[in-house]
Amino acid sequence: MPIALGASAVAVAALTAAGPGKRLDRGVYRLVNAHHGAGADALFKGITEVGSIAASGAAAAVLARLGRPREGMQALGAATAMWALGQLTKKALRRPRPYHALRDVRLLVHEPKGTSWPSSHPAVLLAFVTVAGRGLGLRPGARAGLGALAGAVGISRVYVGVHYPADVVGGLLLGKGVADLWSLLSPSRAITPATVRS
Length: 198
What we know:
- The chain is built from 10 helices and no strands.
- It has 198 residues and is mostly helical.
- The protein has a single domain, classed as Phosphatidic acid phosphatase type 2/haloperoxidase (Vanadium-containing Chloroperoxidase, domain 1).
- Helix 3 crosses helix 8 and helix 4 packs antiparallel against helix 5.
- The longest helix is centred in the middle third of the chain and has 25 residues.
- The two termini are 12 Å apart.
């Protein structure tokens, strides 16, 4: 499963690098990045940094304070692995950010470092919440809610102008793949093969 997710992420990058896929990616970017009101601006600017590696560190600290340090450290380990993979992949592919490639882009946050593919914020968050949800034994509905939060962060990265939709899709696929691989390789008793398959 992790290999299939990684291959799917690479396929998304390849399909949107040129031709119709690139045009579609840019067209959807324009639709999402357009002004949708002050409320939408505030919402997406407010949630976009929930996907930062610093936010994952803070969430792990909260879990430790709540008496679940092992689950927090496992989740932070997966998030950190995803962050490192994202930085390496950005350097390898070097896809320009939308605000460098397109005109009339709405950039609502400071220019981030690094290149565009994949989007690390939703990837890091999905890796964290996937491993944390399994370790904590959360119900499927709660896990789905956390996954939806990662998706919302992904949309926010397009909305605030720093990523294309394909960057987000690729990042989410990689984040899930890293989480699955981390859980499979983890020595923690809190994460079992049965929870990985769920």
